[in-house]
Amino acid sequence: MYRGEKKSIIYVLGLYLSSTLLLITTLFISYYYYEQEQFAHSEKDLLKKYTLLLTQQLSELNEKSSERYRYPRFNEFESAIYDIDKNLIFSTSKDIDITKFKDDFFTKESNSYFISSLTPYYFGAAYIIIEKKSKHLDILDNLIFIAIVTIIITLVTSVFLVNLVLRPMRENIKLLDSFIKDTTHELNTPITAILTNIETIDSSNCDEKTLRKLKRIKIASQSISNIYEDLVYILLNHRTSTQNIDLNLKEMLHQRVEYFTEMAHTKKIDFTLDIEKDVYFKADKKKIQRLIDNLISNAIKYSYKATTIKIILKYSSLIIEDEGKGMSKQEVKNIFTRYLRFDKSQGGFGIGYSIIKSIADEYKIKIDIVSKQNQGTKVALSW
């Protein structure tokens, strides 16, 4: 999975799923309340019919002259009758309680209830209550089941659609990645040849104009070489073996400062070194060189002309401080974002600090950056 692809997938999936689930939830809730309302109307109408049926049975019993009466019973529903003071006269169900009634119709758990006034007062009854087993909860159960199935289908569909949408981007990234790798590989030979030939040129017989041209060629070649090394690190870092050895940081810093001296002199920039002896750090030489090179090249790139770059090496810290443009707090906050460039007028791809952060994290090196606009930037590494 390419860099940024995971973030894109999460973003698209999140947006698609959240909007879809919001729509589904709204529809399901609306449907549920609509069905509940329809159910309540139909249940109430049915219980009214049962009330009329029971009232008719009570009327017929009341007209009979007998000492004993058998209260009417029905398979479809239970019932109860209460007097004017809401005292129970008779009930076919122990669950019926007139004190629970606030409305003439309500549902509780799996039962529906309906209360109605009874006139005339058959057997002294003033209220009649009907209780019926209800299946209204099946609506909610069915909706939950449908919702789960819908969510699963939506998730599968969204993953398929995201992959379908990202396929062209993946192919283009793969093609671009292959092109960059091939180009980077092809650059190695000419860059090495240019630098080698420049070093072997006998400059003692060259006039001043030719020497300036050779210096410019060397500086340009070094810049290309730095870009090449950065690209190699980004593209092949995870495929190359790491050889951690005890590095003499004093020697390495002197070598890298000498390497960048001519580049710095084009802007009349000087180096001041405060380096302790015998400072060793166990790491891969190429990676630490990339870290130091990026710090120094950035300091040169963003320094004003005729200024000084300070390099301080202590037992457990390295500080590189320039007198340049500096950065805002927001820029410092986002400095390690790859391909992000704050100053478009300067060259580069915006990968230097990303490489610095990657190597520092690998070797548990802490990075502190203090920068003030138009005053300069100080980068402090500690371990």
Automatic annotation (TrEMBL):
Domain of life of the native organism: Bacteria
Keywords tagged on the record: Kinase, Membrane, Phosphoprotein, Transferase, Transmembrane, Transmembrane helix, Two-component regulatory system
Transmembrane segments: 12-34, 112-130, 142-166
Residue ranges of every copy of the Histidine kinase domain listed in the record: 182-383
SUPFAM superfamilies: ATPase domain of HSP90 chaperone/DNA topoisomerase II/histidine kinase (SSF55874), Homodimeric domain of signal transducing histidine kinase (SSF47384)
InterPro entries reported for this sequence: BphY/WalK/GraS-like (IPR050351), HATPase_C_sf (IPR036890), HATPase_dom (IPR003594), His_kinase_dom (IPR005467), HisK_dim/P_dom (IPR003661), HisK_dim/P_sf (IPR036097)
GO BP annotation list: cellular response to phosphate starvation
GO molecular function, one term: phosphorelay sensor kinase activity
Top enzyme class: transferase
Catalytic activity: ATP + protein L-histidine = ADP + protein N-phospho-L-histidine
GO cellular component: plasma membrane
Pfam families: HATPase_c, HisKA
UniProt-listed Enzyme Commission number(s): 2.7.13.3
Protein name per its UniProtKB record: histidine kinase
Organism: Sulfurimonas hongkongensis
Top-level taxonomy: Bacteria, Pseudomonadati, Campylobacterota, Epsilonproteobacteria, Campylobacterales
